[in-house]
Write a structure and sequence with these properties.
The protein has 15 helices and 17 strands. By secondary structure, it is an alpha/beta fold. The protein has 2 domains: about 5-60 and about 370-420, Urease, subunit C, domain 1 (Roll); about 60-355, TIM Barrel (Alpha-Beta Barrel), CATH 3.20.20.140. The strands form 2 sheets. Strands 1, 2, 3, 4, 5, 14, 15, 16 and 17 form a 9-stranded mixed beta sheet that branches. Helix 4 (about 175-180) links the parallel strand 8 (about 145-150) and strand 9 (about 190-195). Helix 11 (about 315-335) crosses helix 12 (about 350-355) and helix 12 crosses helix 14 (about 395-405).
Length: about 450
């Protein structure tokens, strides 16, 4: 069995029983963590020894929401509001994607996530008009080596004459069953299946009922966007709750416009929430609901959302969520008391939970990932804390959350296998993949502009 021993590192385990180790060792055996202790002596045992001096070891990050199929359009939508995005992306650019475009975007997007320290990606794929598009996305995730939850969605073009609007189309059972019987059959595999459904905000009540029931029957997470455009089914959440279809396994993305009384009910029922703070503020969703969730005793998960708009760095997303909520809390205190709060309202460790342990909890995999503890899958990140921008380290958690960038991600391990070492991704043909992504992006833009559908 392959063994790796990381020696004398600062270890932020995110496990309440183990805590932080100012100097600690992490032993990996096969695909799992065997031990996390201040010192591990293997004697004459055979293992790869990693010198962890000047390094910080953390659990692999969990990106709770990203539309990876848009990687080839990086930055193209940076100046769009949400309404422009609906028109120019879903009704426009999305319609000219070929399976090969989906494949290379998903592959390179997932590789970039690994490069940035993400070991688990929730790929919310809602541009899959054919099984070939779906299979291309799944193949890209598998080839990248990332741990992923492939959330199977549905495209949202403008209907042609005689066709129903996408809000009237139930999630395709046959396609979901095909995936469960084929490439995503293993519920504990490296890439697993979830459903990216429309939900009551973007579908008719009949479709919402169908999709919630399908997810429950097949025991799959059902994730949906909430907010942004006009509500398709007013009172839809209440009807779904009355039908007993809302509870653990339901994931709401955004949720900025949820009224307090409904948010209370959803929290009480065990619904999880994924916040994409930077994109929500850029495109006009409203302020992230981070603080509203914390006041109700639950934590959000954090996602990137759209690389067509912004960078895929999860540390930055967590910082933005933390900073935005601190700013709102500070403003509220000044309004109420005429003074800045005596102490900060959210510590940095809390924000680190949003991109580690809470992501694992949302996926129902907290027993496998999200923290460093014996028996869990060996998904971890080594940060070079001796880099110029990180020295000196007074508080390792603050260093990780507030100051770490892509430049400091030295090594990444997923399931006991190194995916990045000494600052370099361990992937063949990366330059060719980048060229294919660039060619795909150029063709997509040229095709849609040739049609005169993107101003």
């Amino acid at each position: 069995m392959r063994r790796t021993l990381i020696k004398s590192a600062t270890v932020i385990s995110m496990d309440d029983a183990i805590g932080d180790l100012g100097t600690g060792d992490v032993l990996v055996e096969g695909s799992r963590i065997a031990e996390v202790r201040p010192s591990i002596d293997l004697g004459s045992g055979d293992a790869e020894i990693i010198d962890g001096k000047g390094r910080i070891v953390i659990p692999g990050l969990i990106n709770a929401h990203m539309h990876t199929w848009q990687t080839g359009l990086r930055g193209y939508a940076a100046n769009w509001t949400l309404l422009e995005y609906f028109r120019r992306m879903h009704a426009g650019l999305a319609t000219v994607f070929r399976p090969d475009d989906i494949h290379i975007a998903t592959l390179v997007g997932a590789l970039n996530q690994i490069n940035c320290g993400t070991t688990t990606l929730v790929d919310w794929c809602h541009n899959n008009p054919t099984p070939d598009h779906t299979d291309a996305a799944v193949r890209g995730l598998i080839e990248s080596g990332i741990r992923a939850a492939f959330f199977h969605g549905s495209p949202k073009p403008e209907p042609k004459p005689g066709e129903p609007h996408f809000s009237e189309v139930p999630h395709p059972r046959r396609e979901v069953e095909r995936l469960l019987a084929g490439p995503l059959a293993d519920r504990d595999g490296l890439v697993t299946l979830g459903l990216a459904i429309l939900g009551p905000h973007y579908s008719t009540l009949d479709v919402a009922m169908h999709d919630f029931r399908l997810a429950r029957e097949l025991k799959l997470i059902a994730s949906m966007h909430q907010g942004g455009g006009p509500v398709k089914t007013p009172g839809g959440w209440e009807r779904l709750i009355e039908a007993g279809l809302v509870g653990a396994g339901i994931n709401i993305v955004h949720g900025n416009d949820l009224p307090d009384d409904l948010l209370d009910r959803l929290v009480d029922l065990g619904v999880s929430f994924s916040v994409t703070p930077e994109n929500e503020m850029i495109q006009g969703h409203g302020f992230p609901i981070t603080g509203r969730l914390l006041k109700r005793g639950v934590r959000p998960t954090i996602g990137i959302d759209l690389e067509s708009v912004l960078a895929g760095d999860l540390f930055s997303a967590a910082r933005i969520a933390l900073s935005m909520q601190r700013a709102l809390d500070n403003a509220e205190a000044r309004q109420a008391n005429g003074a800045i709060p005596a102490t900060t309202t959210i510590p940095v460790r809390e924000a680190l939970r949003w991109i580690t342990t809470e992501g694992a909890r949302m996926l129902g995999r907290e027993h496998q990932i999200g923290s460093l503890a014996p028996g869990k899958l060996a998904d971890l990140v080594i940060i070079n804390a001796s880099d110029l921008n990180l020295v000196p380290v007074h508080d390792p958690v603050a260093t990780v959350l507030m100051q770490t960038s892509l430049a400091n991600i030295e090594s990444v391990m997923i399931g006991g296998a190194w995916k990045k070492r000494n600052g370099q991704l361990l992937v063949d043909g990366l330059e060719t993949k980048k060229q294919l992504l660039a060619q795909s992006g150029r063709r997509l833009v040229q095709d849609i502009e040739r049609q005169g559908r993107v101003a």
